[in-house]
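As the next step, I selected for study a record pairing a protein sequence with its backbone structure tokens, which the following lines show:
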Amino acid sequence: MLTIRQAIALGIKTLATVPDPELDTVSLLSEVTGDAPMAVRLKAQECLTPKQEERFRSLLLLRATRMPLQYVLGVQCFYGFDFVVDERVLIPRQETETLCELALQATEKLTAPAVLDVCTGSGALAVTIKRLRPGARVVAVDISGDALTLARENARRNQVDVAFLQGDLLAPVQGQRFDIIVSNPPYIATAACDTLQPEVRFEPRLALDGGADGLDFYRRLALQAPDCLCQNGYLMVEVGDDQAADVAGIFRDTGMLADVAIHRDLYGKDRFVTAQRAAFPT
């Protein structure tokens, strides 16, 4: 039987091509043993049971294929809540928590805000907003039926009521108006999708490919969103590296979106663009 120390050494060797093999190995052992990562390290001399060792080796081999750790473990923490993730959905990133925070701030003065999450994927944004703003009406849209199946599971696990609709961008909610539209759409340029690191290439191409220059979805959102926003309602999006200025320009060019602003993520990068619906014509 392997001791924890031996298992960590085996993991580091097996995951030699992974960016942080020791951290990932300890995460896998934490999953197998049920102990927190620090506790795993403190039990270096203890042995894994045969069942634990078998599962550890199985998970280790999956991670060695460069399958993302989150898919191997089947879960990702977002804004303090756990979300089930697999190859049907994009893995929620820490930086996207700032987009969630911007949306939550915008709801603070509204008693029953209507919030729409476009390209919801795992449902992380929609579910988190509903958990923290239970009085909100939250609707989430995705073109992928597989993604929506998982998003509904995440809503059930987090015990919130979110309306999930399948369709292309805002098509499923035509005729409705929202106080906030939030979106983390595909924004990788098509040619760059095949050059991404191995882990990212496990994620659904549908959730990554933003067209020739990565900006296709922002152009379409800029045209569609004003008709689905209340007066002074917010459109809030995440953008890729070096895209913020271009997306801000796209929003301004519509003539229907005002107060366009760029916000930075936790790492100081321009990562989010927000705008408000301009006043309705009188």
